[in-house]
Amino acid sequence: MRNALVVILAGGALLLAGTPALAQTAKTTLGPYGYGKVKLGMSAKKAKATGKIVLKQAAGTGSCSGWDLKAHPTGKNSVGLYISKKRGVAVIAAPKSVKTPEGIGIGSTMKQVKRAYPRLKTSAGGIPYVSVPRSPKAYYAFFPNSKGELEGVSIGLDTQDCVS
């Protein structure tokens, strides 16, 4: 039996019915408030309660602990997000297939970044960044390679105290 998409006009409303495979699924984006259920500013306790993260590096004497998104583990010497003792979830790195609501992700070009974010600035350390649209307390940081293609994208609190 073939998968079917049925369109019915009922009382002026368009109804669509079909198999779940035909339904559009909303992809989780990085931003404007975090990634999925993990939100910027969320305490470590609340973030852990989402069931979406796993501890990789305890804070120790530092102010931040390193975590991974369970669905997107990182390599041995890296983490997917930082949680500050003072600020909560402070920085989240975009997994490979994840994009911002404006369509920017790993593999995007700096030309695309500049088009999506015309107010792009560069930090003193040379990192391109921009305030997150619809989230006045956060920024996106972009990490291009020598060819101008993004190797990394992250979202962070303006007040984060985990990375420089």
Walk me through the topology.
Elements: E1 5-10, E2 13-18, E3 34-35, E4 38-39, H1 44-49, E5 53-57, E6 64-69, E7 81-84, E8 88-93, H2 110-116, E9 121-122, E10 128-131, E11 138-144, E12 150-157
Antiparallel strand pairs: 1-2, 3-4, 5-6, 6-7, 7-8, 8-12, 9-10, 10-11, 11-12
Summarize the structure in words.
The strands form three sheets. The chain has an eight-stranded antiparallel sheet. It has a two-stranded antiparallel ribbon with strand order 1-2. It is 8% helix and 35% strand. It has two helices and twelve strands. It starts with a strand and ends in a 7-residue tail after the last strand. Strand 9 and strand 10 (128-131) form a beta hairpin. 28% of the residues are buried. The protein has 164 residues and is mostly beta strands.
Radius of gyration: 19 Å
Secondary-structure-derived class: mainly beta
In which order are the strands of the major sheet placed? 5-6-7-8-12-11-10-9
Task: Give the CA-CA distance, first to last residue.
Answer: 57 Å
Which fold name corresponds to the CATH topology? protein yfey like fold
Number of domains: 1
Report the top-level CATH class. Mainly Beta
Which architecture name does CATH use? Sandwich
What is the ordering of alpha helices and beta strands?
EEEEHEEEEHEEEE
Q: Tell me about the biggest sheet?
A: 8 strands, antiparallel
What would the principal axes of the Cα set say about the shape?
globular
| Helicity range | under 10%
Discrete helix count: 2
